[in-house]
User: Which sequence fits this backbone?
């Protein structure tokens, strides 16, 4: 279910670049600030009771909250600017395709997490596919109207977007794995990030009110991919590591590329479609684990021991990150502790 939630979120995110083309008079900074800023504030409002109830735990982890909020503030500005400069498909491919490597690097350095063989195979397939799609898009006829400098700048901003995406995914997963509910963690991180984006929206968002179509695009981006999509992503992060979640999100550039062809009119050469097929293979590797693969991972982790990094071993000897209790279970335990 965790993987399914991330995949559904990725499908919704894949529509953002195409949706933005229906508001051509609105700049990428305004689109990004409206989508992530208003969507983040809405998440915070909906999660208000949870945030208030877990305020002390969030204060204890304020470093992760602030780091995630800063990444949330930078990500949409870099992401939508990348698509504006390099094209919908290429900008999405670079932004999301670079996220798994950035996420793995963060987890390796900070959490000392050893990456499994299955993740490595999936990441190689996914990154190969995104690289192939990116090269195909850059060589496509539709890029003729863009200068080389514009494309290079778009790719660079895509890399910034990929790193910040990995960073706020890691921060949210860190909060959730430390016992904070996904609603409170996502609401706090995205709410604070939304506040950081409000000055940008006030400075650049005037064109959003110039026509009903522009307003509709802003409303859609805020409510569907950003609000609903990140609610699903938060649920997914409660059950899968951030590196797996960012790798599963490689479905987003494939969706974005298909929509760019069908709706926007961009053209993808044959190598690009091969890249999309590799992304699908990556998702198959990551979402359909077998008993044999699970046994191999257990063997790789070595014999069971009392704990590793303070985490208990499961019945099969595999050390997993502590999963947060469900909200109902937490409420029941709190009630029991209080004599309820």
Assistant:
């Amino acid at each position: 279910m965790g993987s399914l939630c991330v995949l559904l979120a990725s499908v919704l995110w894949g529509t953002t670049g195409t949706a933005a083309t229906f508001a051509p008079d609105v700049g990428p900074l305004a689109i990004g600030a409206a989508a992530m800023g208003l969507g983040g504030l809405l998440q915070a409002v909906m999660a208000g009771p949870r945030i208030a109830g877990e305020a002390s735990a969030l204060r204890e982890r304020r470093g992760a909250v602030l780091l995630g909020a800063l990444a949330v503030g930078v990500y949409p500005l870099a992401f939508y600017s990348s698509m504006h400069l390099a094209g919908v498909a290429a900008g999405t491919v670079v932004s999301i395709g670079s996220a798994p490597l950035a996420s793995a690097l963060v987890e390796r350095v900070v959490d000392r997490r050893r990456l499994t063989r299955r993740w490595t195979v999936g990441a190689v397939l996914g990154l190969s596919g995104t690289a192939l799609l990116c090269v195909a898009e850059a060589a496509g006829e539709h890029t003729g109207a863009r200068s080389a400098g514009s494309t290079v700048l778009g790719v660079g901003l895509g890399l910034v977007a990929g790193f910040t995406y990995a960073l706020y995914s890691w921060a949210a997963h860190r909060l959730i794995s430390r016992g904070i509910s996904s609603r409170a963690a996502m609401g706090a991180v995205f709410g604070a990030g939304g506040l950081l984006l409000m000055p940008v929206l006030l400075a650049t968002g005037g064109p959003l009110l110039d026509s009903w179509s522009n307003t509709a695009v802003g409303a859609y981006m805020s409510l569907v991919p950003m609000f609903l999509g990140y609610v699903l992503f938060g649920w997914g992060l409660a059950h899968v590591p951030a590196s797996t979640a960012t790798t599963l999100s490689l479905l987003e550039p494939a969706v974005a590329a298909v929509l760019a062809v069908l709706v926007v009119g961009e053209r993808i050469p044959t190598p690009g479609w091969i890249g999309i097929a590799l992304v699908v293979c990556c998702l198959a590797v990551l979402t359909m684990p077998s008993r044999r693969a699970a046994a191999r991972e257990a063997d790789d982790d070595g014999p069971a021991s009392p704990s590793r990094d303070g985490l208990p071993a499961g019945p099969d000897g595999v050390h997993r990150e502590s999963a947060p209790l469900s909200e109902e279970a937490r409420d029941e335990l709190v009630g029991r502790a209080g004599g309820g």
User: Anything to note?
Assistant: The longest helix spans residues 148-177.
